Amino acid sequence: MQSFEFKMPTEIIFGRHAEDRVAEKLRAYGASRVYIVYGGGSVVRSGLLSRIECQLTSGGLAFQVLGGVQPNPRVALVREGIREALAFRANFILAVGGGSVIDSAKAIAHGVANPGTDIWDFWSGRAKLEKTTPVGSVLTLAAAGSETSDSAVLTNEDTMRKVGLNTPLNRPVLAFMNPELTFTVPEKQLVCGVSDIIMHTLERYFTKVKEANVFTDRVAEDLIKTVMDASRAAVKDREDYDAMSEIMWCGSVSHSDFTGLSRGKDFSVHKLGHELSARFDATHGASLTSLWGSWAQYVYQDDTARFAQFAERIFGIEASAGTEEERARQGIEKMVAYFKSLGMPVSLPELLGTKLNDSELYSLADLATAGDTKKLGTFHPLNRKDVLAIYKLANR
């Protein structure tokens, strides 16, 4: 087994009525002035936001609210939030929503702690993040795993760049997780979220590390199978508490890094997908499923045995089913077929409604690799030529 370091400091409050403990728990973390961040109107219409506000008031906590976070969260709204939170003298940031809301809250927390630095400078690498403000989340969508992760993604609408930032300072201190809050999520968001959870696991499962870490592999494999089974039940019955519970918890576990201990991260498909989200405002989970099969087809021969193992353990494709390479390819096809069964796009034309021309594909590849000055991923480090080839495979 490879050496690793793992720290996941987020306190989880999971189960029915978890959100009813917001005021109690925030006070325990020293909160007195809470800046609340949310997305669209669903948390208002459901009464969730009002219930949280009443709790905070009863608990003697002052609060201010910012709504309007969009999918592929924008840096402009984050800058507005930072200005407001600083003026309010916030000492705790609370996200009420899914991954985009939580990522925005993380960025606002960093900005409040570093008022002299433009927030995009941390994402672009021009400044180093060394301190932040405590963040908590009331999760309403099981998908990104941002409630436990060390990552956050922002989109700069001026430069059309979507960039991730990884730092331990991105870890929230609290996550309130009630699966019932996900019952009203539209089916498209549900299946995109499920796909994102699986992709967070796949991007850790396929890395350059070849030494065995049996337990980590088994955790990743069983998590994928659990999410696949639960997703089928949840699509049929949106109020299946057990199914939604499994999906929600698997999302948190996957992106906490527990599914990749000692293996590291590849995340090349995420980076290719970010370019699609930045340019076309493509839904994050859908951008990933539109590319994964093409990525896998392009790179699987780097470690055919790994893909064959995946095929056997996830889909039951045993040695008698063909050569190692044949089984590897069958596993890829089965994974793509599963995404398709959810109604997810598995190509760029399915994602965008049209094929891209060669100039557009080259531009995406050039942006993804910063003009061919950096390589993406670890399983098969991708240069511009590789990225262009994958985009072309996905463009059929």
From TrEMBL:
Keywords assigned by UniProt, alphabetized: Oxidoreductase
Top-level EC class: oxidoreductase
Fe-containing alcohol dehydrogenase-like C-terminal domain location: 195-393
Record EC number: 1.1.1.-
InterPro entries xref list: ADH_Fe/GldA, ADH_Fe_C, BDH-like
GO MF assignments: alcohol dehydrogenase (NADP+) activity; butanol dehydrogenase (NAD+) activity; metal ion binding; methylglyoxal reductase (NADPH) (acetol producing) activity
All residue ranges annotated as the Alcohol dehydrogenase iron-type/glycerol dehydrogenase GldA domain in the record: 9-179
GO CC terms, sorted: cytosol
Protein known as: NADH-dependent butanol dehydrogenase A
Gene that specifies this protein: bdhA_2
